[in-house]
Design brief:
The chain is of the alpha/beta class and 265 residues long. 41% of the residues lie in helices and 22% in strands. An 8-stranded mixed β-sheet has the order 3-6-2-1-9-11-12-10, with helices on both faces. The chain has a two-stranded antiparallel ribbon with strand order 4-5. The chain is globular. The protein starts with a strand and ends with a strand. The mean pLDDT is 94. Bound molecules: Isopentenyl phosphate (IP8). The site of Isopentenyl phosphate has 15 residues, from helix 3, helix 4, strand 7 and helix 6. Isopentenyl phosphate (IP8) binds next to helix 3, helix 4, strand 7 and helix 6.
């Protein structure tokens, strides 16, 4: 199973409307599930982000700071519930498309220490995959051994799963075409990098750090890339692509070339 495994991360900006709280991108979700269902028997794990479900609540209760006050406890519960709501929408669409997707809640098998995964028990996830099921996980609120609790991003989770389970490929579906040398949303001359090595990625992260005009968009993308580098170092191919454009996810899942950025060691 292991060497055929793909980890697909569906960004929150793809599966929700980030400008409106608790608004799923229903048609996009359905189209993506349909695309996945047309690809052959690959071994697959899906991880999705929080988008306009998890993030507004995590921010409202300042959960990323860790446990500082008691009102946050209800915030933890509400954030989890919002993620479960989004997860159910994705699962309903998956099942409708005959995908054997099984929701697995990350905080039930993962603890962090100072925001990084410390404990991870993959026996259940592996067992599901042995039966050709598709585990579906998400960015979650988790117990943290130092901070009480913390937010585990879908990116950190996807990267760690890919490493631990020996994935061959990780696909990062975002709302931009891939990794650009500058912000494609504000710079019409922004250049899409079709191929990158870890060294290229590190140089870009460094440049972004120096450049105080660095935009939120490239900043967020660099954060994702940083999270992926450990997996790339282990020989896992990372493909960053636009999940909002039909066909790209299914192309990448079947190993065909598609518009996007391929990051390799
Ligand atoms: O959207 C964080 O996951 P992300 C999810 O992958 C929560 O960063 C709980 C806000």
């Amino acid at each position: 199973v292991a060497s055929r495994l793909t980890v697909l991360k569906l960004g929150g900006s793809v599966i929700t409307d980030k400008t409106k709280e608790f608004t799923p991108s229903t048609e996009t979700i359905a189209r993506i599930m349909k695309e996945i269902s047309t690809t052959e028997d690959e071994s697959l794990i899906i991880v999705h982000g929080g988008g306009s479900y998890g993030h507004p609540l995590a921010k409202l209760y300042r959960l990323s700071n860790g446990h500082t006050n008691q009102t946050q406890i209800l915030g933890f519960a509400r954030t989890r519930q919002a993620m479960m709501d989004l997860n159910k929408i994705i699962l309903d669409s998956a099942i409708e498309n005959h995908l054997p997707c099984i929701s697995v809640q990350p905080s039930a098998f993962i603890r962090t220490r100072n925001r990084r995964i410390e404990d991870i028990d993959l026996r259940i996830v592996s067992g599901l995959m042995d039966l050709h099921m598709i585990p579906v996980m998400f960015g979650d609120v988790v117990l943290d051994m130092q901070l009480g609790f913390s937010i585990l991003s879908g990116d950190q989770l996807a990267s760690r799963l890919a490493i631990e389970l020996g994935a061959k490929r990780m696909i990062l579906a975002a709302d931009v075409d891939g990794v650009f040398d500058s912000d494609p949303k504000t710079n019409p001359k922004a250049y899409l990098m079709e191929r990158m090595t870890t060294q290229d990625a590190e140089a870009l992260i460094e440049r972004e750090k120096q450049d105080d005009r660095g935009s939120d968009v490239t900043g967020r993308m660099m954060g994702k890339i940083k999270e992926m580098l450990a997996a790339v170092e282990k020989g896992i191919q990372v493909v960053v692509l636009n999940g909002c454009v039909p066909g790209r996810i299914s192309n990448a899942l079947t190993g065909r070339r598609t518009i996007g950025t391929v990051i390799e060691r």
